[in-house]
Amino acid sequence: MQHKNNYKVKMRIGDAEVEVEGAESGVVKIMEALSESLRNTSRSALNPLSPGGSALPSSVSTARSVSDIRSFFEQKKPSSDIEATAVAAYFLQYLASDPQKSIDSASLQEAFRMARYPLPARTTYTLTNAKNAGYLDSSGDGEFRLNAVGYNLVEHGLGSADESAKPSKRRKHQRNKKRKKRA
User: Considering the entire predicted model, what is its pTM?
Assistant: First the structure.
């Protein structure tokens, strides 16, 4: 039975839910302390192995900086269906609120749709092409998993460098032609 001066507050943070019940002053103090703690905790410090760290996995800190799959695609800027497949597999495995260990044709199509990325004619072929490119491993029954090469592509290769800083292939080709003429 709840007393008249009992308060009950629920707070949802990502997948975690905090529920506090008690006297008004106690509930307010706990919620203020929790809010202050969340404000002061940097996203990179959310490591369960660090002393005083949170019990949240490190992928949750990345997920907080990326609110949805569309913004993740915009951040990574895949230049082909194959790269986009690796980005979708990475997102679904590490950043989605309900992580998936593998990706299939239906989940790839849904990821592309949610990211507003152009749908390929046949997602099964796109998954196979991403596997043949070395980004995914087959896990049987039309399902694929992101491997280390695909992980490194998404984590360290895509969206990390300013595209305008890279010389174009045409400029590089022209420089090589000039060098050949001099020789």
Answer: 0.55
